[in-house]
Design brief:
The protein is an alpha+beta fold. The protein contains 7 helices and 11 strands.
Length: about 220
């Protein structure tokens, strides 16, 4: 559970480092408990401590973490997509099932679901080889692109920016990406908004199509 959570946090953060505080919050335990868990993982060669920052996975830790994340998210996707279980119920049940599900069962589920790269909630599902699906950061998109939000770095599911709810599946029209001012002007659900690059880089998206540039005014966040 701890190794898997470290992997998820490292994937969510651009520096690839999970802090003790973030781990404690995500696991619902004290920072002291996290420190003890990390010492054991470090002794097993799965994580490396980065002074004053947190921990980073070793190559061995990354492989193990991605395998665990893939297992849980495939189970979660199966429970939601095929059995129509509510999101939180699917999460809870996948946690219970992941320790008893065989590799053969997980492989069969992946085949049945056509090797999905993302969960219904927009979380990335690592491939069998441990690779994450390709994505763009909103800050990297060019003017006139239309993209679909897949994942919000550092946020489990959704975040409100400038009064607009950003969650998996939301379509975003890139109006202007101004690298001189470090801002991206977008339209979401008919509403214009300008985001700083520091915020836009946390929004991981996939390209849908490119259209002719559209320019209009927008609020700034």
């Amino acid at each position: 559970m701890c190794l898997q959570t470290i992997g998820i946090l490292c994937d969510e953060m651009s520096a690839g480092i999970a802090t003790n505080g973030a781990l404690a919050k995500r696991l619902g335990v004290s920072t002291g408990t996290v420190s003890s868990l990390l010492k054991r993982l470090a002794a097993d060669g799965l994580v490396i401590h980065i002074p004053y920052q947190g921990v980073r996975l070793t190559s061995s830790g990354l492989r193990s973490s991605r395998r665990l994340v893939r297992r849980r998210r495939l189970l979660q996707q199966f429970l939601q997509e095929m059995l129509r279980l509510p999101h939180q119920v699917a999460i809870d049940e996948s946690v219970e099932l992941e320790s008893v599900a065989s590799d053969r069962l997980v492989a069969a589920i992946a085949t049945m679901l056509s090797q999905p790269e993302w969960t219904i909630m927009g979380e990335p599902i690592p491939s069998e080889s441990g690779e994450l699906p390709a994505f763009l950061r909103l800050s990297e998109c060019v003017t006139s692109e239309i993209v679909s939000l897949q994942w919000i770095e550092g946020e489990p599911h959704a975040v409100s920016l400038g009064g607009i709810l950003f969650q998996a599946g939301v379509e975003i029209a890139v109006l202007i990406n101004d690298r001189e001012t470090g801002t991206v002007s977008v339209r979401v659900g008919g509403k214009p908004l300008t985001l700083g690059h520091s915020t836009a880089r946390r929004l991981l998206v996939r390209r849908i199509l490119t259209t002719e540039p559209v320019r209009d005014g927008s609020a700034t966040t």
